[in-house]
Every structure is written in structure tokens, then in C-alpha cells.
Amino acid sequence: MIEVITSIAIARKVFREIRDAGATLGLVPTMGALHAGHTSLIERARKENDRVAVSIFVNPTQYDDPADLENYPRTFETDLEKAAAAGADIVLAPASTYLYPDDYRFRVTESPLSQRLEGAHRKGHFDGVLTVVLKLLNIARPNRAYFGEKDWQQLQLVREMVDALFVDTEIVACPTARETDGLAMSSRNTLLPDEHRRLAPQLHTVLDAGGPVEEMAAALGAAGFEVDYVERWNDRVLGAVRIGNVRLIDNVEI
Amino acid sequence: MIEVITSIAIARKVFREIRDAGATLGLVPTMGALHAGHTSLIERARKENDRVAVSIFVNPTQYDDPADLENYPRTFETDLEKAAAAGADIVLAPASTYLYPDDYRFRVTESPLSQRLEGAHRKGHFDGVLTVVLKLLNIARPNRAYFGEKDWQQLQLVREMVDALFVDTEIVACPTARETDGLAMSSRNTLLPDEHRRLAPQLHTVLDAGGPVEEMAAALGAAGFEVDYVERWNDRVLGAVRIGNVRLIDNVEI
């Protein structure tokens, strides 16, 4: 039976009891609207830890666009079923006011990486991400926390934050889960109307085909996307596009 | 025998062993140049915890003035003797590069309180303070951490950060230690030439006498200080002055 916790005080008590019992804990932070990408993280956490917690929290501070926050899919009841089926023991689903008792006065910031790529197109996004991830890690104090490679820049920033601030959690990176047509799984995919859903896999197809980033951007534009960026970063190429009201990101190894 | 640790990796291992043994830990964060104010914090920590650690680290990120950082007194050998005599088991004295592997890319920020009072006169000061305190708390994971009331604004910000970020450490406030003439103990006092040292207790005398803050500021100016601020804040009055190259702060309950 999955345990749903909304109170931070109760969560800290429950997580402390797990630690005191000498059990290991894996945390999978999510914003809900769970899909097979999330459940693959939960399944991995299940294999590697005695106890598994999933946090479900649509974090307002990482949205610069109120419409994007409002439209983000919320499917709490089916999320609970999926989390339980994938092996989670605990779902932490606090209210926003519980996670931000300070009304977001205290923030974790980073520069310059957090201002590039996604950060250049979503003002303040990574401040919100880093701050909420730190809060969740401090509340749960997991041995391991699981993040998908789809959000590549987020993954790097979270790893580097954990190292910089000496957080005692191992960050585990998990491969991007994809639909059979190559589209990276994302909660936002459910917002795509059919014609856009048919186009969406082109983002992965174009990035995966390789070549100069300018040509990839041109190909995506020609396919019907508005291109936010296509950039190489170390051994990856990262892209972000918009189609209708939905923004899609992806990245592949070069 | 006091244990001196400079490596973060070793420190984390030592503190983990303390936790795993079920012992409680008190941390006293300092910038060294220990005086009776610090030793009163260590003694209190000694009474309330099984093990006591003192960190000695002159944190470069909280100085906006390189001369102030350079002139800050450094007395490591006598610090070790004083810490040991007051009951500390461990001194954590890392190199700056060890605490900032990220070269200070990741920061804890706060607004608006951290921009007022001390923050208005020392740009970026509290970002540096909050960031280093969070790092030290994450490294040591103490049950309790001890801060002096002399740095009143710092104490409030640290308390509020710990609440906002769900750090599992109790912040213990300790009364300001004073010389017999009322001067708040401070490592910077040793930098005062005799004539300034004779004047310095006037800061406390004027704040303690009460009255309108404008009159206090005028009295301090007439006594020979350059006044950065005198302000009421809740049930305290806080003041900061400069005399020669030395900056002094103090605060008293109204």
C-alpha cells in the first residue's frame, strides 16, 4: 500500500525513521503526470534501494510563464497507481505553501550555466529547479535521487549543485524513455493535438541525424517548429522547439 | 586530543561515523581568531552534545573588501588551544578551494532582508555567509549549530534559511559576550589601536541608552565614529560604525 504524505513535518519523521532503521532510500522527484519515463526511474530506484519515494509537486517557481504552469497536466490519482505499480512506497505531495514557507525568499542560484540554453529561454527556471530539488533532498535525505537524461542541463546542474553544496545524495542519471517513433517521453506530450503529435518525433530524428547545428535548426524550422535553440554541449547536441502552445526539448549523444 | 581535519572527504567520513554511532554533534562555525565569545559558544555546545566540532574558515565570499579579508586576524595555533580548552573534539579547517570546488558558481541568496542593514553596506555579504553556512551544515550535519547574537542579522538569516531549505539542524542563539567596558567581543577588536579601543565601547553605551535612532547616530558621530547605520528592527536596535580601518557592529534589546 503506497503511503501518501502531504505534510513536510510528517515526511521528515517518516524519512528519519527509514534512516534510523538503516534502510536505504531512493527518491524520484517528479511534477506528476507520470509516464513510462518516470516509471522507469521508479523501477530503477526500486532495484537499488530498500525504500522508494516519489515526490509529485508542480513547482511554481520554475515557471516563468503562468499559462505553462496552469496548463501543465495534473493526473494525481493515476499517478498514485502508476507509482505504486512501479514499486514506490511513499508519495510526497506537499502543497506549494508547505515547500515555500519563506515565500521563495531563499533561493539557490547558479551562473553562468543556468543562464544558457533552457535558462536563456526560461528566465529564473533553474533557480526554481535547484531550489526545489535542494528542499526535497533535505526533506528526504535519500541515498540516491533519480533524474532523466531528457532534461540534460537540469541533470548537470543538479549534479554540480550536490557536489558544490556537499549534499549527501548520489545523483543517478537514467536514459531518456522514448515512444516507438523516437519522441522523448514528456508530460507535455499529452497537450499536443494530433497533427502536432505526428510532427513532434522530428525533433529527435533531426538531432539524431547529426550535422552542423545550423542545419539542424533550419531543418526543424522547415518541418514546422519554432526553434528556441540547437546547440552542441560537450558530447551532446541539445534542442528546444515550440509547436503551438507546447514546448519540447530533447538531446542526444553525438 | 583535538582532531584537526582539512579534507572535506575525511570530515564527511568522521561526521558520518559520529552519526552512525548515535552520538549528537554540535557545530560552532567560526572564522578563527577565537575570543571569549567563541569559547562561550563552544562551552555551550559541549554541554548540549556528545561531540563538538569547531569550523575555522575565513570565508572569502562574504567579503566585498579585499583589504578587510586580508587584514582579518589569523591565529590558528592559539585557536586550536582555545577550542580544545573549551571542549571541542574536532576542528574543521578546510582550504578555500576545498569548500568552493565550484568556484562559487552555486550560491544561496535571499531578498529582501539580506540587502538591508549589513547587506546594504557589504555587497554580497550574506550570499557568502548563507552559502558557506549551508555547506558547513551539509558537511557536518550537526544536531545543533551555535551562533552569537552579536551578528543579529546573520543569526536571523541563518535561522530562516534553515527553515526555508529544511536543513535538519537546530540553530542555537547565544548572548553576545562583552568586555568589562561593554564592547562586544569581536576578532576585529584586536585591530584597534589604543585610542580607538578606548572609544569603541561607546557603540554599546549609546545603543544601550536608547532613544530615537537619529539621536543615537548623532551621538556616535559626535564621539568620533563614522556611522553606517543605526536602526530599529523588531525589539532590537542595531548599529554599525567605522573607526579608522575597523568596522564594528553591535545590537541590544530595546
Kindly estimate the percentage of residues of chain A that lie in beta strands according to DSSP: 15-25%
The average pLDDT score of chain A comes to 96
Sheet with the most strands, sense and barrel status of chain A: 6 strands, parallel
Q: Given this structure, which CATH class of the largest domain in chain A is correct?
A: Alpha Beta
Strand order of the largest sheet of chain A: 1-4-3-2-6-7
CATH superfamily of the largest domain in chain A: HUPs
Number of helices of chain A: 11
The tally of structural domains of chain A comes to 2
Helical fraction of chain A: 40-55%
Q: First CA to last CA of chain A: what distance? A: 43 Å
**Low-confidence parts of chain A:** none
Any idea what the radius of gyration of chain A is?
A: 18 Å
How do the helices and strands follow one another from N- to C-terminus of chain A?
EHEHEHHEHEHHEHEHHHEEE
List the helices and strands and how they pair.
Two copies of one chain form a homodimer.
Chain A: E1 3-5, H1 8-20, E2 25-30, H2 36-48, E3 51-56, H3 66-71, H4 76-86, E4 90-92, H5 96-99, E5 106-110, H6 118-121, H7 125-140, E6 144-148, H8 152-164, E7 170-174, H9 194-199, H10 202-209, H11 213-223, E8 226-233, E9 236-243, E10 246-253
Parallel strand pairs in A: 1-4, 2-3, 2-6, 3-4, 6-7
Antiparallel strand pairs in A: 8-9, 9-10
Helix pairs in contact in A: 7-8, 10-11
List keywords for this structure.
six-stranded parallel beta sheet, 254 residues, three-stranded antiparallel beta sheet, Rossmann fold, alpha/beta, 2 domains, homodimer, Pantoate--beta-alanine Ligase, Chain: A,domain 2
